[in-house]
Amino acid sequence: MSTEKNEREPMFSPKNLKLLTSPLNLNNPITVQVLGICSALAVTAKLKPAIVMTLSVMVVTGISNLVVSLLRNGIPPRIRIIVQLVVVATMVILVDQLLKAFVYDVSKQLSVFVGLIITNCIIMGRLEAFAMSNKPWPAFLDGIGNGLGYGLILITVAFFRELFGSGTLLDIQVVPQSLYNMGYVNNGLMILPPMALITVGVIIWVQRYYNRSLIEK
Amino acid sequence: MHEIFNIFIKSIFVDNMVFAYFLGMCSYLAVSKTVNTSVGLGAAVIFVLGITVPINYLLNEYILKPGALAWLDSEFASVDLSFLSFIIFIAIIAAMVQLVEMIVEKFSPALYNSLGIFLPLIAVNCAILGGSLFMQERDYQSLGQATAFGLGSGVGWFLAIVAIAAIREKIRYSNVPPALRGIGITFIVTGLMGIAFMSFLGIKL
Hints:
Chain A is an all-alpha fold. Chain A contains ten helices and two strands; from the N terminus they run ααααααααββαα. Chain A is about 65% helix and about 0% strand. The longest helix of chain B is centred in the N-terminal third of the chain and has 30 residues, at about 35-65.
């Protein structure tokens, strides 16, 4: 049995960096953990709301993880969920007010989904699974990592939906007018909600095809 | 009366919580492996929505809305407490879910065991908070309308989860490509069901 004292992990050790990178692929919150689906599908009709949503979720997840991890030894088990909900709700109220102040048009597009970040399963899921039993800095990194993984899927879906559904990206016309003159028409079905589900299904298909370990038996 | 019926039918088919707004997807995907557990969870969601939306409507009407506090004292007519909506709604929802959990544990221990962690997770089910937030956004005119909306949304969610559970039970015997098995095919089937539900868009009673 080693007698050396527990050394402090360097801030960006491989173990900590793994917290940032594993949610991008093998532990992706949306396609592998199957969390946070609701908002991922609803705000991806255009790229701009998707980006704003990603940043909001990253901030809320990271900071909530940090706060709950700092409090983890003082929370009585019975009211655990309520304490977590209060922390997350407070962060979301702050983010909501910031969005209304700085990007009002996008916050109108996001409407109720900003409030729904409170019930975003990713945040509650990571609080329960990680922040309650880990130190503050790794918890913060885990929150940011999961936010990034979530964002990756959101931005991919929004990219395809906006490109094929409206011919634009970030509201800038990308499909050249000459294609429209030849008879190309925007695929209206892509803007509709069901296509988001099918797009995520295809992303899962591609991801599992290249990562055999994720396939369910 | 006509308006209430309209809202009820609309929130089941046209504004379906799952297919039109994607609320409650996490538990929808996780619990829909068998029809029995889906029926149990769906019934619990109908109950919770049917109770929390009217209560939150009353709170919104008499405390949270801008100018709502005028009934207390005319000085308070300019107070706007709507920024507290999130916290108050989620508190009511958490309390109601705790109540439902106790009732289910008492009357049907088998259902309680099969639902496991997903019963308390109804508290963070976006469909429940979403119901209250939509009720607030759409500004319903009476308690009856708000209740019709709550119950209708619950029934819509129930319909969705039972349907996908039935399909998933049958799909186990189909030749799904390995990479699509489980979650992948569920997403695609749900998308197709969403397209099917869009056929209700033109309903006017």
